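Late entry, written up from scratch paper. The run itself happened at the end of the previous shift, but nothing got recorded in the book at the time, so transcribing now.
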Amino acid sequence: MITQLYNFENLPRETVRPGVERAAFRGDNFMAVMNWLSPGMDVSPHKHTFEQVVMIVSGRVRFHVGEESYEAGPGSIIRIPPHVMHYAEPLGDEVALNLDIFAPVREDYLHLVDYQNTTQADDHADA
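Output as recorded:
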């Protein structure tokens, strides 16, 4: 995989459901997914078979992990173990940016990084 400069603000976004959008970037062995979480969004408790690391980039969220909940702001990092129910809900009236790191790469999210398979990477670069 070639080294390229990207900016999440310029990457193709997917609408997950009303109030939630995401864009992704991958390396050979990891995937980083930026989530835009809007106030009032529908929450979606879920679990999966892999470990997840969450970092709150901006805004505030209440993150539910198993039976615990955490109020998190910029710079907060949360580990989600495999097979544990979890979800986030934004707090306040600001869109929260939530960066998820997955290792290994999530096969079900590969469509989010199709842009990395093209040589037209300049369209998504941070200029």
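The beta strands are 14-17, 20-26, 31-37, 52-58, 60-65, 68-72, 77-80, 86-91, 96-102.
(Scratch paper discarded after transcription.)
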